[in-house]
Amino acid sequence: MSGLEDVDVPMGVDMDADPDGHADADPDGHANVEAVTATVGSAEAPSAAHSARARSAYERAVATCHHAGVGPHHAEVVPKDPTGRAAHALQLAARSIESLGSGTPPDPAAAARCARNAAATAALAAQVAHALDDSAPSHKALRAALTASQAAAAAAGARTAGRDATLNAGADDAERLALTAAREAGWIH
Q: Compositional bias (Basic and acidic residues) spans (predicted)?
């Protein structure tokens, strides 16, 4: 698989998100994923766990976009290609992530939707990175990103509204695996 045409990504990007959000990064511009993944999978309330997973997926998307050469200048209001879609989704996810820290703790359903959107953004970024390198580690990272996106979507589903412990644990595990695979592919340094 060398292109984007054969990959189906579950998409759920929040269309009310801010195009001006920015990720925390080290001096070289690499996302600080360790800082935001420290609480993923902890015994915290569902909202906090969803928020941590959202931040992890977002930082994974930022690092993957950086690796693939995707920057804010690639974003378009109506994206016409995978690079534009990834850049635009990253900007949209930034506002959603920002809203998680804006005072009162979010409802678990809202936090789960934010995590779903961030995971979908990371899946788009993975598609772009994989299109540049179809090596085995890159393919594994793409598959893991797609799986994490699907797991986050299941956890945010209408029936459970972010409150199903089994689905939440599955989404947390999938995020950890996606993070590991992205590191192994060289997308995160």
A: 19-29
Dihedral, CA of residue 122, residue 49, residue 111 and residue 178, to nearest 10: 10
pLDDT of 158 reads 77
The whole-angstrom separation of Cα 189 and Cα 184 is 9
Give Dmax (Cα) for the chain. Answer: 44
| Nearest partner of 56 among 143, 137, 161, 148, judged by Cα | 148
Spell 110-142 as b/e; 16+ CB within 10 A means b: bbbbbbbbbbbbbbbbbbbbbbebeeeebbbbb
pTM assigned to the model: 0.76
Band (103; pLDDT cuts 50, 70, 90)? low
Indicate the residue type of 72.
P
Side chain identity, residue 160: T
- Measured from the Cβ of residue 16, the count of other Cβ atoms closer than 10 Å reads 9
- Which tokens go with 184? 């192994």
Q: How far apart are CA 43 and CA 62, in angstroms?
A: 26
Measure the CA–CA gap between 141 and 79, rounded to whole angstroms.
Answer: 24
